[in-house]
Amino acid sequence: MRPQPLAVLALALALFAPAAGAGEAAADPGHTLEAVAWLAGSWQGARGDDPLEETWLAPADGTMVGLFRWLKGGEVYLYELLSFEETADGLVLKIKHFGPGLVGWEEKGEWALFDLVELADGKAVFAERGDEVEHTRVSYRPEGERGMVGTFEETRNGEPVVLTFRYERK
Asked: 3-class DSSP state for residue 9?
C-alpha cells in the first residue's frame, strides 16, 4: 500500500516541527532592547562647562545604535560609537572610543564590551566583560519626565572614579 501524500506531510510535520509553544518563553526584558528602548532620541547635557550630546536610534533588528560627543573648552575631547545588542546571554553594550580627528582608542575591530548585570526601575547597569581588576561599569537611568543620567564608574589604582552625566531630552 502506497502512503497518502497528506499522511506523509502530517507525519513529517509531527516529527520535525517543534510543538506549539515549545522553547518559547516570554522574553526576559533584561535580554532585550525593551530595557533601554526609552533612550531612543537626542539628549543634551553638560558636565561642568563641558557640553555633552548623546543620540540613540530606535531599536531595529536586535540592536540600538548611539553616538556620544563631549567637548572641553570648545574642542572635541571624546566621541563614542555605542550599540546595544541582544544576544542569547543577555543585552550587551559595545563602545568604541575616538579622540579628536576620529582617532580610535581601541584597536581596529575591537570594542569595550559590557554585559547587563542589573535592571531595576528603568536603570540598566552594564559591567565591562573580563574586567575583574578595574570594575568598570556604565549605567543609564531615567530622571523625571525628560531627563536621563548616565554614569561611568571604575576603580583606578584602588580608588573609585565616578563620572555622572545628566541630560535632558531635546
From this structure: helix
